[in-house]
Amino acid sequence: EKQQMSNSSSISQFLLLAFADRQELFWLFLGIYLAALLGNGLIITTIACDHHLHTPMYFFLLNLSLLDLGSISSTLPKAMANSLWDNTNISYNGCVVQVFFLFFFLGSEWSLLTIMSYDCDVAICKPLLYRTLLGSRACVHMAAPSWGTGFLNALLHTANTFFLPLCPG
């Protein structure tokens, strides 16, 4: 009886060669990350603290800032660590998690921007019906599916990217 050997490969880490020997990139990444944290943090704090800004437009802007913070936080800290410590790899599981969260936040952002364009359209074209069409309940009912869409998008893309076999066996 012949034993059949499987022809498959496994990956334990990925190499990020673009960041090799680039400690000066740390300062650039740090500046970008701090600017994003400061800008989005100020937007979130201002909207949360000022009751005059509790309108649909600012509700969506608050969500957009949260998503922006998530998307930049899913990639830049690892890039900063790699450039600071001259490390050029990321674990397989770390890459899966990073790709999932990046797709989640960017997919949700894309959906939310579509909803924000509808908000602007209603504000311009139907100003008298604005409060009726976009009450707080309607805003939550529109924002929640954008987060859900981002999650589903991320789940499907990550599963298709990382859980397919490398070689047909």
What can you see in these coordinates?
It is a multi-pass membrane protein. It is found in: Cell membrane. Keywords: Cell membrane, G-protein coupled receptor, Membrane, Olfaction, Receptor, Sensory transduction, Transducer, Transmembrane, Transmembrane helix. This is Olfactory receptor 14I1. The chain crosses the membrane at residues 25-45, 57-77, 89-107. With 169 residues, this protein is mainly α. It has one domain (19-163): Rhodopsin 7-helix transmembrane proteins (Rhopdopsin 7-helix transmembrane proteins, Up-down Bundle), CATH 1.20.1070. It is 70% helix and 4% strand. It has helices at residues 24-49, 56-73, 76-84, 92-125, 130-133, 136-162; strands at residues 13-15, 89-91. A two-stranded antiparallel sheet has the order 1-2. Helix 1 (24-49) packs antiparallel against helix 3 (76-84) and helix 2 packs antiparallel against helix 4. The longest helix is centred in the middle third of the chain and has 34 residues, at 92-125. The radius of gyration is 21 Å and the shape is flat. The two termini are 20 Å apart. The mean pLDDT is 87.
Describe the structure concisely.
The protein is mainly alpha-helical. Helices cover 70% and strands 4% of the residues.
Structural class: mainly alpha
The CATH class: Mainly Alpha
CATH superfamily, by name, is Rhodopsin 7-helix transmembrane proteins
Largest sheet report: 2 strands, antiparallel
- Overall shape: flat
Largest sheet strand order: 1-2
- Count structural domains: 1
List keywords for this structure.
single chain; 169 residues; mainly alpha; Rhopdopsin 7-helix transmembrane proteins; flat; transducer
